Structure formats: structure tokens, C-alpha cells
Amino acid sequence: MPTYRVNPRGVARARELIDARRYRVRSRWADVQPGTAERNAYLKTHSWEDYSTWHLALTEGPGDETKARYAFVFGDFTRLHRMGLIACYYRAAEWEHTEVMVAAHDLLLHLDEARA
Fold first, then answer.
1. Domains in the chain: how many in total?
2. How far apart are the C-alpha atoms of 65 and 47, rounded to whole Å?
3. Is 96 left (phi over 0), alpha (psi -120 to 50) or beta?
4. What is the pLDDT of residue 116?
5. pTM higher than 0.90 for the full model?
6. pLDDT bucket at 1, cuts 50 / 70 / 90
7. Which residues constitute the domain of residue 107?
8. Which among 57, 56, 34 has a CA at the least distance from the CA of 107?
9. What are the beta bridge partners of residue 58?
10. Do the Cβ atoms of 103 and 56 come closer than 8 Å?
11. 20: pLDDT confidence band, cut at 50, 70 and 90?
12. What is the C-alpha to C-alpha distance for residues 11 and 89, in angstroms, rounded to an integer?
């Protein structure tokens, strides 16, 4: 089982997107989450540092310029998806990655408060 730690840059990007109202409240995450083709296309025009900010966690071990380093994607590289955060929360809870689960939960609360 990989070990993850919270990615502060990813959490900051998520908060910025929420504050800027760049999010989707309702979406089918299975249809919009970035797959291999979308990730590769994004990396052709963006830096690894920018790519990293779309992920809530860093995988311990892999190098910074590898896709294996970044986990728990929460958006489609243009906006945050509430269902992406929910997917992060449930996946982290299922595999007992408590710090990532708490980060996703806090972001969900921030999103819901921003919408109120």
C-alpha cells in the first residue's frame, strides 16, 4: 500500500478555485476525471509543478517529475469538481489515509460554505 502525505500546493489550488468560483457542484466524476490522455495532454503544455497542484496528495517514493508521485486528483485541469473531492474523501477513508481524508473533508466544507 503506498504512503501518501497531503500536498499543500494542491490544497491551496483547491481553495483558490473555490474562492474564484471555478467549480462544478454536480458532475459525473467517472465521466470528467482526467484519464491518461488528458493527463499527458496537460503535461505537454504545463509544468510538473502546475500538474502537482491538481492533486491532494503526494505519494512517498516516486520522483517529482512522474505521474506516480501525484494522487487524489480533484478537478479536470480547468475547475474543481465537488464529486472529485467526494471521490478523494471516500478513497482516502477506504484505505485509511486519514490526513488526505481530512483535507478533502475540509475542502468540501469550504466549498459548501462558499456556496451558501
1. 1
2. 9
3. left
4. 84
5. yes
6. confident
7. 4-115
8. 56
9. 5, 70
10. yes
11. very high
12. 13
Rounded to a whole number of angstroms, the distance between the first and last alpha carbons of the chain is 38
Instruction: Give me the amino acid identity at 78.
Output: T
The one-letter amino acid code at 61 reads G
- The C-alpha cell 474543481 sits at 80
Q: Which of 59, 64, 32 is nearest to 47 (CA)?
A: 64
Q: Are 80 and 18 in contact (CB under 8 A)?
A: yes
Distances (CA, A) of 68 to 61, 65, 83: 9, 9, 22
Grid coordinates standing for 11?
Answer: 490544497
What's CA 40's distance to the chain center, in Å? 16
Q: What is the 3-state secondary structure (H, E, C) of the chain?
A: CCCEEECHHHHHHHHHHHHCCCEECCCCHHHHCCCHHHHHHHHHHCCHHHHHCCEEEEECCCCCCCHHHEEEECECCCCEEHHHHHHHHHHHHHCCCHHHHHHHHHHHHHHHHHHC
**At how many degrees (to 10) do helices 82-94 and 98-115 cross?**
150
Give 22's pLDDT tier (boundaries 50, 70, 90): very high
